[in-house]
Every structure is written in C-alpha cells, then in structure tokens.
Design goal:
alpha/beta, 7-stranded parallel β-sheet, about 50% helix
Length: about 700
C-alpha cells in the first residue's frame, strides 16, 4: 500500500508520464488490474490516449473509469446497490411533495415555497449536503454553532425539516446520485478485485469529502494509489496553503491526500516532479514556444517577469460584438488550415459562456464548412417531440388558443398534413375561432360572397384534430383523475400518433444527411421523455393534483433533461467551456469572450445559505461547497489551465458591445496580459476584417 503523486505545472506532461508508466507496468504484470479514474467527461479521451500510446494499441488489464462507473464496477462484484437512482426531475417532485406536507412545520421558509426557483435552490442545497456527506448528527452540531445566530438557526431548522422529510421518502425506495459513493464506502471492503489493483487518479483539481472517504478505502485496500496534481515546482507542498494563491487548491488537495495516507498507514512515496531535463523548468508542451512558456511561468504569480521580446505566439483581438468575434475566429482558422498546414483537430475554442457563444459558433462554423463539436449538454426544449407535448398541454390549459393549437400542429408530429394545417389556420384566423366548444362543433360560417371555402374539407381537418387531442383534453380537465391517469393519457397520445416511428424516421434522415449530432438527439429524446413519465408515475402516481401543478411537474422534468453528445468525428474544432472541456494536443487555442462578467464568470448571488454562514460552519468543522469568494479564486486556476493548453498559438478575443447593445469592458485578464508582454498590442478586428465570412441575418433566432 503506497501513495505517489505526479506533480508539475500545466503542460509538463504529468498525465503522459503516468500513463506511460502504467502501460509499462501493465505489460509486465498482466495479472494486476490498473484502474485510471478521471472526471466523467474525460473518460472517452483518456481511453483514446491509452489505446494510442500502448505498443499493442489495445489493453487487457487497464480500465478507464469515472468515480460513478468505478462504483458500479464494485457493485457488480459485491452487490449493495439495491435501489434505483432518483434523478434531478424526481428530486424536484419529492421536494415539492415534502414542502406541501411539512409547510406548517416551517419557521422561515413557509411563505417562500411558492416562489419561482425556490425548489431548485432547495434541490441544489440537498444535493450539496449529500455530496459532502452531511449526516443527521452534523445538523445537531450546526444547530449548536448557530445558537447565537437566530436567522441561521431558523434556516437550519427548516432545512433539517425538509432534509428529514426527503430522507424519509427516499428510505428503502431510491438513492440520489450523490449517495452512490456513500453506499460504495459501505461495501467496498468486500471487493477482492480491488485488492489486486493499482489506482490512478488524473484530471481532478480537488476531491469532495465523499471522494476522500473512497480514497481512504483505496489506499487501505489496493497495491498503490497514484494521483496527478497541477502545481508549480517552485511552490511548497506543505505549510499554510493560501486559498487566494493560484495553486492554493492544489496544496489543499496534497495536504488532504497526505493526511488520508497517514490515517490509513499508507506509505508515501517520493513525489515525481515531471520536468523537461533539456530545458530546465520549461514545461514540455512549450519547449518550442518561449512566449507561451513565459505566460505559464508568470500567469497569476507574484512577482512576475515581463517578456520583452517580439513574439507572435500570444495575441489579443477586439471586435464589435460576439458575432464579430466568432467571425474573426472563423477567418483565422481558415487561414491557419490553408496557409500554415493546421488540421482542424489542432485547433480549439474555449469560452466562459458556452451557451451564448456555442449558438453563434454553430451557425458561423457550419456556414463556412468548418467541422466542429460544441462540448455541452444540450437541453431538449427545442426538440419537436417536447414542443409537441408542451403545446398539447397548453391546448388544454389555454382552452384551444390559436397559439397552442398551431404550435402543436406545426411540430410535424401530428397526422395532419402541412397543406391541411394551412387551410385550417386561414379559416381559424378569419373566423376568430377559439375554445373547445367552437372546435368540437362543426364550422358553418363562410368567408362571404367573393370568397369560397370548402367547409366539408375544413370540418374534416377539424375532426381529425379533435380526434387526436380531445381525449387528452377530457382526461386532463377531469379533477377526479390521478397523476397516473394524466401521464397515461399523454403516453396514449404519443402511441396513437406513432411518435416513436416518426422520430426514428427523422433520426434516419439525419444519418443520411451526415448530421450525427442531430441524429444522437433524436435517438435519445423519446427514451428521455418516457423516463420522465416513469418518474412522475412512481413518485406521484396515485395523487390528485391540479392541471397547473401537473403541468409544472412535467415542465420541470423537460427543462432539466439534457442530451449527452460525444464528438462524432476525428478532425474537427472543439468548442468548449473553460471548466469542463478536455483538450488534447492543441496547437492553437482561441479564448473568446474575455470580457467582464464572462471571464471570470459572475458567480450567482443569493442561495439559501450566505457566504458568511457557510464560512461560520466551515470554520467549525462542517465542510460544505466553496463560497463565492473561494470559487472566484478557483476560477483563476481554470483560466490558467485553459490558457496553457496550446503548444504554438494563443488568441485572446473580447467584444465591446453585448447582445443587448450595451457597452461592455474587457476582462481584467487583458490588462494582465498587456503587463506580462511589453510589446503586446490589441488588434482591432473591425478594421482588419479581411475576407467575407458567410452568416445569416439573425444568428440568435436559431
């Protein structure tokens, strides 16, 4: 049993060195299991790295897992995972139910339970408590800590009431995703497979208390645990780590790992510092890029050294608005590929606002024939099936309003043709038809003497619409029906209209058109909706709730559902977020949207527990998620990790006017870069627009 750390600054080759050692050892010891645990979004890339690095381009005794997948691997061996996981949709439903039943016991929250977003805040807090392994006895300690803080004490008392109600409902029914590691810690000792394993952890900036508990078990059971930690070799490993320092989180992680090793009587091997012997302390990634090496060496460090030579590796570009930024990025990518021999896979784009920039980039990149993968989980609210369901619900709640009826029909999932929809729409608009009574009775009015209308045809279309929708209308309007009945009639609507077959046809069309990301969305959406139905029935099936409440429950599920996508091709530009996106072997990086409020990100205000309250609890031994101030310091580490990804070129861009037409300033990071590089100037891309970049009139409409 031993612990070994692989240490080095960004770009030094820590992961590469550890993977090389693992591959070598795995070939020498075929009977030993080597497990590489990485964050969930890194698993695919890590598998690709290991296979490409292995001399045989295949592995038998090396597994790449996330913490969650690792847990299920242990459960497969020893059991212990007896209950299904309750997803976010289900959590919201359970919290809503608990609040209704416990409303009279709440001291502070009673008047706020109906406020928009309150259930989301509670769900986030409960998830945090489970993730940080807060137990009932911890609440007793928190109540003692808050004895002189009446507001905090009232909050904690209400939180405990809700927490206990939530736990009572979950007992012997479900577990939350955050509890998986708690369950794992109770059964992991039974694993024989783990006792013959070497564990390697890579890509983590820190660990939660639940993960630390599993790490303690790993150190106690396995042959060896190896962990990569990003830290400048000039920084001390021990001492009083400062959270405001760039590597404060890394120092805290190292300190905690050594404490766990000491508690489990694990031998601590000498840490391996990964350095380039030929170039001294220059990270391997920047061996041919002195300006980028200087940036890595000085970014967010004090004192720093100014780079005073001419250089073309780091550049700053300003543009009028986000669209102009992306237009510049497209022009420069085309130039790099055409004139400097770059491949698309050598280039990446990162931003602090992937939602906003992802939409713009998708439009510009596709219009210019640049293959790209936008790395974020896509919501399903714009999918025709989801629009179809929401519109069908609105037909009932809004009593056949014009907007709801034709939103439903225009999804393309009704059995009524586009031509017939046009005829019906013209008639409905002309006659001002609205309400179930008007739709369920034959249409008799005509346009007048000069215009004729085929009433028989129009009434045939009307009857087909009523045949589709009115069974749903009658059930949802019946207050005697249960949630199970409501959900069943929605399901029946989909079955009657053969929604599965229609989505499958659309999926096949996207495959034929070589649109793999659209295909993946349409492949998953039906199953996602069915899972939402299942959760609604399992949690609320026999209850009587109003149509409005049922609509809110369904809407919550649909809003929280996300489609996970993976890169469909090998040679494409990755566009991602500064925190979650894994980049590998990047030559040129575009860091876009480097503006106030985007880099660093604005950390949401509010929350049920304030920063001062969190700090009070943390100072008294109750570890919770970082405060906003701590998150701001951690954001600097993510910025550092992003800006040190490219080997050759780093482009920084910012805009002057936001989407609302308001002036916006550059991030403080622009000023820092101007300080680090004495000969660095801002290039105005509104002047140097160069060649034309094709884009539509209104990017944001998509």
């Amino acid at each position: 049993m031993s612990l070994q750390l692989y240490l080095g600054s960004a770009g030094s080759g820590k992961s590469y060195q550890m993977y090389q050692n693992i591959i070598k050892e795995s070939m020498e010891n075929p009977g030993v299991n080597y497990l590489i645990i990485v964050p969930e979004q890194f698993t695919l890339q890590t598998q690709k790295d290991i296979v490409s690095m292995h001399p045989n381009h295949g592995v038998m005794n090396v597994d790449i897992l996330s913490f969650m997948r690792f847990a299920y691997r242990i459960f497969d061996e020893v059991g212990g995972n007896d209950y299904p996981i309750l997803e976010d949709t289900g959590k919201s439903m359970v919290i809503r139910r608990v609040l209704e039943r416990k409303s009279k016991e709440l001291i502070l929250f009673g008047s706020g339970v109906k406020k928009p977003g309150f259930i989301d805040e509670l769900k986030s807090l409960l998830s945090e408590f489970y993730q940080y392994n807060i137990k009932p006895e911890d609440f007793d300690q928190m109540m003692n800590i808050s004895s002189k803080k009446p507001l905090l004490k009232a909050k904690l008392q209400d939180i405990r009431t809700i927490f206990d109600g939530f736990a009572d409902f979950m007992k012997e029914r479900y577990i939350t995703a955050e509890e998986i590691l708690v369950v794992l810690s109770k059964v992991i000792d039974k694993s024989d497979w783990l006792k013959n394993s070497v564990i390697c952890l890579d890509g983590f900036t820190g660990f939660t208390p639940c993960q630390n508990e599993i790490l303690a078990k790993m150190m106690d059971l396995t042959k060896k645990v190896m962990v990569t930690v990003t830290i400048d070799p000039r920084e001390p490993l021990s001492g009083n780590e400062s959270e405001y320092e760039l590597f404060g989180l890394s120092q805290k992680t190292i300190k905690k790992l050594y404490e766990i090793a000491d508690e489990t009587h694990t031998t601590i091997d000498k840490p391996i510092y990964v350095l380039d012997g030929e170039n001294g302390n220059v990270p391997y990634r920047f061996r041919n890029s002195p300006a980028l090496a200087s940036l890595e060496h000085n970014l967010f460090r004090y004192p720093y050294k100014v780079y005073d030579k001419e250089q073309e590796e780091v550049s700053i570009h300003s543009a009028k608005n986000p669209e102009a930024e992306v237009a510049y990025v497209v022009r420069e990518i085309k130039r790099l590929v055409r004139e400097e021999g770059y491949r698309y896979k050598d280039i990446a784009v990162v931003t602090g606002d992937i939602e906003g920039y992802g939409r713009i980039a998708k439009h510009y990149f596709s219009n210019n024939g640049i293959p790209c993968f936008i790395d974020y989980k896509k919501d399903i609210l714009g999918n025709p099936f989801v629009v179809f369901l929401r519109s069908a619900m609105q037909i009932v709640s809004e009593d056949y309003s014009y907007e709801s009826v034709f939103a439903y029909l225009r999804t393309g999932l009704s059995d009524i043709s586009e031509e017939d929809i046009d005829l019906l729409e013209d008639y409905v608009l002309a006659m001002g038809i609205r309400g179930a009574k008007r739709y369920t009775e034959p249409f008799t009015r005509t346009f007048g003497r000069k215009k004729t209308v085929d009433l028989e045809k129009i009434n045939d279309i009307r009857e087909r619409l009523i045949h589709e929708v009115h069974p749903l209308y009658k059930v949802l309007k019946d207050k005697e029906k249960t949630v199970r009945d409501y959900t069943q009639t929605l399901y029946d609507l989909g079955i009657r209209l053969r929604i599965w077959d229609k989505l499958e046809k659309l999926n096949n069309d996207f495959i034929e058109q070589d649109l793999p990301l659209m295909s993946k969305e349409y492949e998953q959406v039906y199953r996602i909706v069915m899972d939402i139905y299942d959760q609604i029935v399992l949690l609320l099936g026999d209850e009587h709730i109003s149509l409005k409440e049922f609509g809110e429950v369904l809407e919550t599920g649909l809003m929280e559902a996300k489609v996970g996508l993976i890169p469909p091709g090998m040679d494409e530009v990755v566009i991602g977020d500064t925190q979650r996106t894994r980049l590998k072997d990047i030559r040129a990086l575009f860091f876009i949207g480097v503006n106030e409020g985007i880099v660093p990100k604005i950390i949401g205000s509010g929350g049920i527990l304030s920063d001062m309250e969190r700090e009070l609890l943390t100072d008294n031994g109750i570890e919770l998620a970082p405060t906003k101030r701590q998150q701001a310091f951690t954001e600097n580490l993510y910025i550092y990790l992003s800006m040190t990804k490219p080997k050759d070129k780093l482009y920084i861009t910012f805009h002057k006017v936001n989407e609302e037409g308001k002036s916006i300033g550059p991030s403080f990071l622009i000023g820092k870069l101007m300080t680090y590089f004495s000969k660095l100037e801002i290039i105005n891309e509104d002047v140097h627009a160069g060649e034309n970049v094709h884009a539509g009139e209104n990017v944001h409409a998509g």
